[in-house]
Amino acid sequence: MPNSFYKWDKYSDQPQILRDKAFKKGLYKRGAAGSIKTLLSILLLPFLGLRLLFQPRTLIGTATDNIGLCINPDYPIDEKFCPTDVQLKDMVHELGVEDLLIRLPLADFQHKQKYFDFIDLFSDKKILINILQDRNHIENPAQTKLALTEIFERYSNTGHTFQIGNTVNRRKWAFISQDEYFQFFKIAQDLKESLFPQITLLGGNIIDFELPFFIRSVFHLWPIKYDGVAAQLYVDRRGAPENTQLACDTLAKINWFSAIMQCSRRTTNRLFITEVNWPLEDTRPYAPAYGDCMVSEDLQATYLVRYYLMMMASGKVEKCYWHQLVAPGYGLVDNRGTGLRKRDAYTSFKVLNHLFKDAKTCDYSEQNQQYCLHLESPKGTFKAYWGCDKSFCVKVEPGEQAIDLLGNKITPDKQGFVKAGDRVIYILNFNYSSGK
User: How far apart are CA 289 and CA 14, in angstroms?
Assistant: First the structure.
């Protein structure tokens, strides 16, 4: 199969859309058998839904130290500023994030040392190494085995985790069918069983809320088993995280994934959301998607926090990684031009991480589009309030402090009330200062 059809978009850091109609038609024909298997997997949906009926919407008492961040070597082009290693490390330190996801593309494995050096730059962090497939390695198992062996040998004793593949239900990412992915993952599992029993392998890698693909990813006859499931659970095309798709908001989507995993013998019940973001307005050609899903920088900061709050309320996600730190079209930092500009999302992520790092959930409520997540931490107790297209008043009791999602103090009115709405507010029973 000609690999020339698979090209990388250097602006949005993803494969380009396959535009050759004859080539795409050929892919659909070759993947027809796999597509039928995926379609038939939907027959399991009613039985899996029964599990969901007996599963609580939220698990209270779970730790909220599951905030992660994707950070990758920058693709240098003239229109962008390439951040230095020192700048990247300083920003990671300022954000206070301990869990990082770093991509290692097999398509660029001839420059493997660049990626090894970048991973080693953050050796003091917990790293999920996302090994990206390409068509050449999919078609050449022996070459894949050699590359994976070298990667595992280098990092098998570091405690790093490995995500095998990415976005397998989009043909532009080079897999023709999920069966091809299972064969690809089996190479990694065989290496684990024979040489590297200590490593952790994440599989699945379905993007968006596409239940037939997700079900098929964990219900099959292949002799493989994931140590955890990775999901690229984007909800941007629905707008706000509370908006629904097939009657499911973000929290319900997570619950569906969890229920499906619990019924499978092909995975443990460890769920990792390895990508989420919203594309930004006025950032073409850097945005990964265009249209109604594009949001302002203000909404980016708002939706980021609300997504994480719902994710943490679920109690069913081990790690959730924002994609990513530096990217003009969707990152926390804009690097167009001659420098770095930290967006509001950068600050909201920083405040979120500092507040929630050592916390655990105590209670969660949602009624009439009004939401509240109650937590406790070594500093004290606090609550996050927000509304979905709705505002309401919250009482600030004596000894409590109100801040917005950027960490700015909010002064209550004469009756001691502050207003919550689309932008999250936090009510703390301890003093907050600069995220420390």
Answer: 11
pLDDT digits (tens, 9 = 90+) for 199-247: 999 999 999 999 999 999 999 999 999 999 999 999 999 999 999 999 9
Residues 346 and 382 in one domain: no
Does residue 69 contact residue 95 with C-beta atoms inside 8 Å? yes
- Domain assignment present for residue 3? The answer is no
Question: What pLDDT, in 10s, does the model give residues 278-316?
Answer: 999 999 999 999 999 999 999 999 999 999 999 999 999
Question: What CATH number does the domain containing 419 carry?
Answer: 2.60.40
Q: Are residues 367 and 347 in the same domain?
A: no
Residue 1 forms part of a structural domain: no
- Assess contact for 277 and 323: CB atoms under 8 A: yes
3-class SS letters over the chain: CCHHHCCEECCCCEECCCCCHHHHHHHHHHCHHHHHHHHHHHHHHHHHHHHHHCCCCCCCCCECCCEEEECCCCCCCCCECCCCHHHHHHHHHHHCCCEEEEEEEHHHHHHHHHHHHHHHHCCCCEEEEEEECCHHHHHCHHHHHHHHHHHHHHHCCCCCEEEECCCCCCHHHCCCCHHHHHHHHHHHHHHHHHCCCCCCEEEEEEECCCHHHHHHHHCCCCCCCECEEEEECCCHHHCCCCCCECCECHHHHHHHHHHHHHCCCCECCCEEECCCCCCECCCCCCCCCCCCCCECHHHHHHHHHHHHHHHHHHCCCCEEEECCCECCCCCCEECECCCCEECHHHHHHHHHHHHHCCCEEEEEEEECCEEEEEEEECCEEEEEEEECCCCEEEECCCCCEEEECCCCEECCCCCCEEEECCCCEEEECCCCCCCC
Range of the domain at 97: 9-357
Please tell me whether residues 165 and 261 are part of one structural domain. yes
End position of a domain, from candidates 325, 357, 389: 357
Q: How far apart are CA 162 and CA 408, in angstroms?
A: 38
Phi, psi of 227 (to 5 degrees): -80, -10
* Residues forming a β-bridge with 69: 100, 322
